[in-house]
Amino acid sequence: MLKRALSHRPAASRIRTRATVVAAGLGVATALGVGVASAADGATAHHAPAAHTASAHLQVTGHGQSAAGHFGDTHDGAHAAAHKATDKDADNKKAAHKKAAHKKAHQQTKSWVKPVHKYKLTASFDQAGGMWSHKHSGQDFAVPIGTPVQAAHSGVVVKAGPNGGGDGPAYGNAIVISNGHGTYSQYAHLSRIDVHVGETVKAGEHIALSGNTGNTTGPHLHFEIRSTPNYGSAVNPVHFLDRHGLHV
Questions:
Q1: N or C: which end of the chain has fewer CB within 10 A?
Q2: Span 197-201, average pLDDT
Q3: Catalytic residue of the set 220, 222, 239, 244
Q4: CA nearest 234: which of 95, 118, 127?
């Protein structure tokens, strides 16, 4: 009996040992379960900042898109500024062309020249005297016989010859040039005529030599500005030339 009883003790001890092992195993399992749960919670906690990061990324991306939109606005503004600069350049070019055209036109209006060089002014326009049946109709430039005479302005010769070119013997050899815009210039008392009717001349071009023909008291060039090609339509030539920027 005693041996049997003693033989059962190790078995009981083994049962207790197993129970202990099982309990320990359950404890480990429970601990592991908790650990897994904790790990799961840890994973959740670990991924939460990632979600926050994604949200922040969306926010950053949103700001990036806004910045891109702002860059687009800046680009459009730069494009508009470039167009504005191009338009300004075009306006400047137009203004420069307009200024050049105005200058050219002004130069053309100033393209009157003196009919002779190295002269002395003698009888003036509208001056009274026994040399003329009426008051003096032009401006006299006292010069030696044979002094070159030039066209005071460009135009077409409408009169050229003795007897004042048809205006009367008092003028001697004379030339009348149509200078356009209802203006005519006359050159009288010439010793030689070097142009013919219908010829086109330029301002400053040689047309004759001065002389002492016709009704004179000495060699000189008689110069007139007229509103028609004929005698009786003369205006003050000195004032006319002065208005065109030429002082005699």
A1: N
A2: 98
A3: 220
A4: 127
